[in-house]
Amino acid sequence: MGNIIVNWSPIHGQGATTSNTVALASIFALEQPYRSLLTHTQASFSTMETMYRKGEKSGFRDSGVLALERLVKSKLLKPEAVSDYTETIYKSSLDFLPANRDSYDGEETERLIQPILKAAAQQYDFLWIDAHSGTANVRTCEMMKQADLILVHLPQNKYILEQFFSEKGMPAELEGKRYFIILSQYDADAGYSLRNIKRQFKIQVPMYSIPYTTGFRDAANQETVSEYFVRSNKSQKGDPAFSLLNSVRKINEAVLKELGFKGAEREEA
């Protein structure tokens, strides 16, 4: 059965959750010998829908989560059918499942999500999910409940970190779950560093960072993210993309170890 990795932030718009999830899943697919599925649970349009592609592709209209939900309702969903409703990002290693923007709530959401996750987990080794921020969204809470590992994305912002690590800030959805913390858009030269944050809040769970990278941001805006990671994958120290890729690789290696998988050996740059 595949492992469900939910990427989530307690606050909307500041965790860079979508771009981080895309970076993690892309590099993972290019470097590891496993098959991954990437999707999101955003209630409205997600930039993930355009980061990998230019313009509207005809297949997307009859694909994605909405199509799978129709199969669930008709009791026709088979595990082998999931990939038929996805778009291939990297052949044999990463597929993208467009999300359903229609909203469901309560029992309806739970009834539709569980069989989709179960079917997808039988066809993919890893499911990378960009969850809607906060805990008000039923779909997000159900995903977090089903997750094998949660990656919590937080900004390098003292006020938000203080709120999150307070007694009232830690959501119940993380209780008893395995999770990592990722500082997004990280500035290594800032005084409020990863080391200082760990010390101040006495953080016991694994904590990592992903830096802001201009080239990645440009690729996202130009809808050429898949090409960007293929092109940047061989970057060396000193190259603009190296810091991003090095940070993402560390997280991916930790994810594999946490979930009991062996990672592919890679030559050091």
Average residue-wise pLDDT: 87
| CA gyration radius, whole angstroms | 18 Å
- Main β-sheet: number of strands, strand sense, barrel status? 8 strands, mixed
Structural class: alpha/beta
Low-pLDDT regions: 54-60
Query: How many strand segments?
Result: 8
Strand order in the sheet with the most strands: 3-4-2-5-1-6-7-8
> What percent strand?
15-25%
Question: What share of residues is helical?
Answer: 25-40%
The DSSP helix count reads 10
Q: Which of globular, elongated, flat, extended, rod-shaped describes the shape?
A: globular
Distance between the termini: 33 Å
Give the helices and strands as they follow along the chain.
EHEHHEEHEHEHEHEHHH
Protein architecture, described:
- This protein is α/β, with parallel strands linked by helices and about 270 residues long.
- The chain is built from ten helices and eight strands.
- Helix 7 links the parallel strand 7 and strand 8.
- The longest helix is centred in the last third of the chain and has 17 residues.
